[in-house]
Amino acid sequence: MSGAGSSLHVALTFDDLFWAPAFATMRSVCLTTRRRVDIVFHLYHWKLDPEHRQDLDNIATEFGAKVHHTALEANVAVTDVLDRLPGTRRFPPVVYARLLLDLLLPPEVERVLYLDSDLYVRAPIEQLLEIDLAGNSLAAAPEPGRHHLVGGDDMRTRKSPFDIADPYFNSGVLVIDRRAWGRADLPGYLETLSRSGEIARLYHDQDVLNLRFRGDWLALDPRWNVTKPHPALRALDPYIIHYTTGMKPWNTLAYVAFGSSYKHVMTASVLRRYRRYRRHRALLRLLGRA
């Protein structure tokens, strides 16, 4: 539990393609709390450009929050795990990095809020970090699309370790009890899944977490992780918006809730640079050089 004046630990994992969304997520966290100087961001990134790192460090200058960096590609314990895990163009192996938080976080961190990088936080995060987990290892919001995600087409074609009736959470917002996370030995569990070949049947790290913490998580109010945010969902006044589809708020045309506000949170200058960066990356892929 975190009292007034104690640190509020927030962790993000991302690669260089998501530097600007990570910046926007961090900035939204700071804008919506009065405890800015208590926030400690733990950033675990993959091959981050030095210029982009400076953008993230500017959060500390603007708000007084602390920003700690860890370059995942320089951590042998991390690369040894990630190199053996499956990835896709949409989800590179770095998405599994959140499972390694117990290896990465400083020992004094007892509770941490993990956030995906495509979020817009609209409520004070201390409300999450200070909740009673009621003996559970973590808290998360139920995944609204869990039935199709678990069942596949016609809800019967996917070979899954889950039953469609099972509770299932979205892993984009997690309140984590550090000791319980460590006891779960997620690196060892990943190794077991890799050796058995079962990991190839899973929906990346989200399935892994749901398997490992089955029956051991507290369900949050869904407003703490509103996915696929159609503009009509503004009426719910959500606490956290999660832009889970390909329609992202940083795109030129994006019919999503709070898209205009999000662009202001990212700031006009970062948004312009990020769009140029993405166009450059797309061109390199087209030329076969990325």
How is this structure best described in words?
The protein is α/β, with parallel strands linked by helices and 290 residues long. It has one domain: Spore Coat Polysaccharide Biosynthesis Protein SpsA, Chain A, CATH 3.90.550.10. The protein has helices spanning 19-31, 50-63, 76-82, 101-104, 126-129, 146-151, 178-183, 186-196, 204-212, 259-266, 268-286; strands at 8-15, 39-46, 66-71, 111-115, 119-121, 138-140, 173-177, 217-219, 226-227, 240-242. The strands form two sheets. Strands 3-2-1-4-7-6-8 form a seven-stranded mixed sheet. It has a three-stranded mixed sheet with strand order 5-10-9. Strand 2 (39-46), helix 2 and strand 3 form a beta-alpha-beta unit. Helix 1 runs parallel beside helix 2, helix 1 crosses helix 10 and helix 10 (259-266) crosses helix 11. The protein is globular, with a radius of gyration of 18 Å.
CATH top level assignment: Alpha Beta
Largest sheet: 7 strands, mixed
Q: Unreliable runs, pLDDT <50, ≥5 residues? A: none
Instruction: Give the total of beta strands.
Output: 10
Oligomer: single chain
Structural class: alpha/beta
Strand order of the largest sheet: 3-2-1-4-7-6-8
| Principal-axes shape call | globular
* SS field, number of helical segments: 11
The average pLDDT score comes to 91
Series of secondary-structure elements, N-terminal to C-terminal: EHEHEHHEEHEHEHHHEEEHH
β-sheet strand percentage: 15-25%
Number of domains: 1
Which superfamily, in CATH terms, is the homologous superfamily?
Answer: Spore Coat Polysaccharide Biosynthesis Protein SpsA, Chain A
Question: In angstroms, what separates the terminal alpha carbons?
Answer: 44 Å
